[in-house]
Structure formats: structure tokens, C-alpha cells
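With this grant's support, we have paired protein sequences with C-alpha cells. One protein thus recorded is set out beneath this paragraph:

_____
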Amino acid sequence: MKKTSQWKIPLFKINVSPSDIKSVTNVIKRGTDWADGEEITQLEKELSKYIGCKYCLMFNSGTSAGHAVLIASGLQNKQVMIPSLTFISTANWVLMAGAHPKFIDIEEQTLGLDPIRIEEKITKTTKAIIPVHYAGLPCKINEIKKIARENKITLIEDAAESIGATVGKKKVGTFGEASIFSFAANKVLTSGEGGAVLTNSKKLFEKLKLLRSHGRLIKENYFSSIQKPNYVTLGYNWRMSSITAALALSQLKRLDHLIKKRQENSKYLASKLQKYSQIQFHSVPKGYVHVYQLFTIILPNQKIRDNLIKFLAAKGIMSKVFFAAIHETKFYKNLGYTYDDLTTTEKICQRVLSLPMYPDLTKTEMDFISDSVGEFFNSHKNQ
């Protein structure tokens, strides 16, 4: 198995600036407040402002952030609608909170939840919808929000892959009761690991604060206070460290530049690949802004897709399937759930492929990717 550094062109590469290094070094050098420093509060303030929500809480991962929101939303034993084309943690949040996942099919334009299918499948036990903004492209969130509002269903956005993406003048993460972001290593904004919840609900915000830190009412810094801590409910250790927050805060300051580079590179790579009739792209609806956390193409069938992965790997180019359908994994099959029609999801999951995409990807590298794809098609004409 190759390490990231062993690929000639990896799937992603982190853009590191001198300010990233300085920010992290400053926290380390001070020798105190590594766990609960001012960087965390500052990041929450700046991220709230950037997204456009009243409240923000940082977590140690997108997974813990999502888990916390599902618990705080009181969804135990309730049905939660989710896509199967997403990272497995979206479904796991639901199970870990004691709720029941209901997989709903996607539409082919944005590869997000299909609003028509949502309306068809709503039941009396449906209490929440978690749409995913796949690959950095917003789903049909306005239509989904309308359905949620009309049916009095909680809307929670999985915006893990889409920080900075917009529909009209609104950023993703501002349409539901809460939204979850991830800062894992391959994300648009990364601190290695980390996550955030954004909301306009003070009630939800206060619940999340307790869940994040052992159920403790926080009035002072635990590590520098002599006051007896007050534990009022069950909670977890889901806090982000000051070192991680410092790195994320530094990246946030140049986030728009990083997004612009992704958009420019995606436009260039798409222009090189569009001459191959075997490739489809999911289109960006009018008024939507795609941030290209992933550069996704759709191939004619699974055989061609899988052979292309191997062909590119032999040339040192990494590509990867994002994602295999969750409902087809061994774990979810063994749970014994029955699934309604997920035809589009299954068709897309057999054909979808992500190619390298990151801010520092060069035109020479993108030319090599395109030429290699062309070489593959020329040598596999009968597939």
C-alpha cells in the first residue's frame, strides 16, 4: 500500500503556509493552555461570522460534532432520512444517537438527496433529515428545507465537504437547525482533524456545550480554576485542542483563496477531460457555488471505473471512490434493515470516481492526469 508521499500525484495535498507553522508553534512555545486556549474561542467567533450563524462550537472531529447534534436534537427511536452516498459517519451518527436511519435516493444533478423521494417516503416517525452537500456542491437544499418546514421535521446539514459553498447569497450550513463541518486532512479547510457545529439556536448550543465536555457547566477554564466542577448531565470528551484550533484559524484566514484555487484547477482539469465522451460531470445548478473538495467524474460502468483506478495507479496517480453505498456495506446489511428503491444511488456508486484535486495542483500535473485518462480510453476501447 502506497503512502501519500509515494504517489506521483496524490489525491489531495495540504497547502501549508508560514502562518500555519507560526500559529501552531506559538501555542506550543507558550507551554500552557494547549487544551483550552483562546484560539478555540477565536476560531468559533470567526467561523460563526464566516458562515453566518449565531453560534459555533468546535469539536475534535466532524464525527463527534455530528454525534453531538443528533443526541442534542432528541432523536432517540426516531427515523432520520439520510443519503447512502456519503461517508459512513453520517449514518453512524444516527445509530449512535439511538435513532433509525432511513436511506433515501439521490438525484443525478448534485448527487444530493432527491426532494421528490423525500416527500414520497416521509412517515409519522420521520423526525429529521440530514442532507449531504456532496463533494463541495450544495444539494437542493432550498427544496429540502421547504419540505422539512411543511412537515415540521428537523433539518441538519452535513456540510463536512462544503465549507464556503453557497446557494444564492447564503452559505451552506445556514439552512437548517444545525450544520456539521469537518476539518479532516482532505477537507477544503483542514487542521488534520477537527469539526464544528453551527446553529442559530441558543437552546441547542447550550446542550452541545455540555455534551462536548463531560456534561460540565463551564464558567471558568477547568485547567486553571480552583473551583469545584459542576457536572449536570452525561457528556463526552469531544473538545478541540488549542493547537488544532490555531491551525484551523490560520487556514480560515485564507480559505477564500484556497477555494478559488480549487475552482480554477477544477475548471482547467474539466476542460482537458471534456473531450472524452466516456466522462460525465455532475452539473452545477444556476446560482450554486461549488468548492470542489472532490473532483468527481462519472464513468460508463463499474468495470471501466475500476480498471481506470488501476491504470492511473500504475502511473502514480491516485484516484478513489467517494463513496461506496452505505446500505451495501457488510455492517449495515447485517443490521437487517430493508431499503426502498435506491436505484440512482446504486448506479452512481458503481460509476463515480474522484481524481486528484488540491490548491497546489499544477497544470503540468493536470495535463498528465488528462493524458493518462486519454491513454486508458484509447487502450480500452472495447469495454
